[in-house]
Automatic annotation (TrEMBL):
A motif (GXSXG) lies at residues 63-67. GO terms for biological process: defense response; lipid catabolic process. Residues 21-229 form the PNPLA domain. This is Patatin. SUPFAM superfamilies: FabD/lysophospholipase-like (SSF52151).
Length: 399
């Protein structure tokens, strides 16, 4: 197989367009972007053959929490398959359907549910043991610098009270940042109140070590798109002093696909009237939801979308930025952990229906996403995106 997009972009100064894929956090709702990615990869395979994989086309793939897990699945090398990606995009949803009921076991009788409710006051809702075992078994000792294209996966260090941004490029330059992929995935998925924090230590082989005490990257960047773009800008600045290259990152030389995991915005679940009566407990536990986490994650994701929309629209390159998100989730659909067979299948159907919906873009005046006349459906937009990715890859192969 040809050299990946990331390696080509680093080795050739003639690259015309930087390609970015970003995947939000959202627990079991990772099925929604999983469905969209399977469609995109199928279009790439129609253009370039059945061996085409997502990792071959993107300079950088960023993911937070469940998005970090999807990112790793798409970019971790499979030593049993000539170091091709561990998962094809079409296999992501099968993974979620099979494994998330074991990661988030559903309690079916009253006494077990009551005991679990009391336990939530003294510890996380789930012990994370199955998730840890699964990721360690799946990823073994694969490390960050081995990914097949550059990745960016955020977590948050609760000891230092600062974000930790894991990236392939950093891992190649600094052994202390070259963590095991299993540790990174466990960390970026450790949502407060749901799963326990994760600690681990890296070493450089010369006696130096670095300790990490991490939780879910969603507390810092539930939508990691801006992290991905800023990472590329930083790499350009490090390797090329020409400021024009950095300036062009804000428009025609960057192609961005940002995938959300859905949100319950239009359900209007919370109101000021209700929240004015809440104490500390209600902000953390409220009819099966965690309002404080919902608010933080949605707020950070929307700010990133608004900022990027502003940049691309101001330069008249709005079609270079495609954000696909569903704000209509209701009930169990909007949860991160209701991993019943019925709800998981419903999320898969939501992903399929997203393909049929019109392309939407945030209105800079209202902050709300609105359908864009004349730009077709999300499926049509992804098909066009696949064409651009294929053309860019072929261009790099000839330069």
């Amino acid at each position: 197989m040809e050299t990946t997009a990331a390696n080509k972009s680093c080795s050739s100064g003639k690259t015309k367009t930087f390609t970015v894929l970003s995947i939000d956090g959202g627990g079991i709702r990772g099925i929604i972007p999983g469905t969209l990615l399977a469609f995109l990869e199928s279009k790439l395979q129609e253009l370039d053959g059945p061996d085409a994989r997502i990792a071959d086309y993107f300079d950088i793939i960023a993911g937070t929490s469940t998005g970090g897990l999807v990112t790793t699945m798409l970019t971790a090398p499979n030593p049993k398959d000539n170091n091709r990606p561990l998962f094809a995009a079409k296999d992501i949803n099968d993974f979620y359907l099979q494994e998330t009921p074991l990661i988030f076991p559903q309690h079916r009788n009253f006494m077990t549910s009551l005991a679990n409710w009391f336990d939530s006051f003294t510890g996380p809702k789930y012990d994370g043991k199955y998730l840890h075992s699964l990721l360690n078994s799946l990823l073994g000792d694969l490390t960050l610098k081995q990914t097949l294209t550059n990745v960016v996966i955020p977590a948050f260090d609760i000891k230092l009270l600062q974000p930790v941004i894991f990236s392939t490029n950093d891992a190649k330059e600094n052994s202390l940042r070259n963590a095991r992929l299993a540790d990174i995935c466990i960390s970026t998925s450790a949502a407060p109140t749901y799963l326990p924090p994760h600690s681990f230590t890296t070493n450089d082989g010369n006696g130096k070590t670095c300790n990490y005490d991490l939780i879910d990257g969603a507390v810092a960047a539930n939508n990691p798109t801006m992290l991905a773009i800023s990472h590329i800008i930083r790499e350009i600045a490090k390797k090329n002093s020409d400021s024009k290259d950095v300036e062009q990152m804000e428009g025609k030389r960057v192609l961005v696909l940002s995938l959300g995991t859905g949100a319950p915005k239009l359900e209007e679940r919370y109101t000021a009237a209700k929240a004015s009566e809440w104490g500390l407990l209600s902000w953390v536990f409220n009819n099966g939801a965690t309002p404080i986490i919902d608010i933080f994650s949605d707020a950070s994701a929307d700010v990133v979308d608004f900022l990027l929309s502003t940049i691309f629209q101001a330069r008249n390159h709005q079609r270079n930025y495609l954000r696909i998100q569903d704000d209509n989730l209701i009930g169990d659909e909007s949860s991160v952990d209701v991993a019943t067979a019925e709800n998981l299948q419903r999320l898969a159907e939501i992903g399929k229906k997203m393909l049929e919906k019109p392309v939407s873009r945030v209105c800079l005046e209202t902050g709300k996403c609105e359908p864009i006349p004349g730009e077709g459906t999300n499926a049509e937009a992804l098909s066009k995106f696949a064409q651009l990715l294929s053309e860019e890859r072929k261009l790099r192969a000839t330069t």
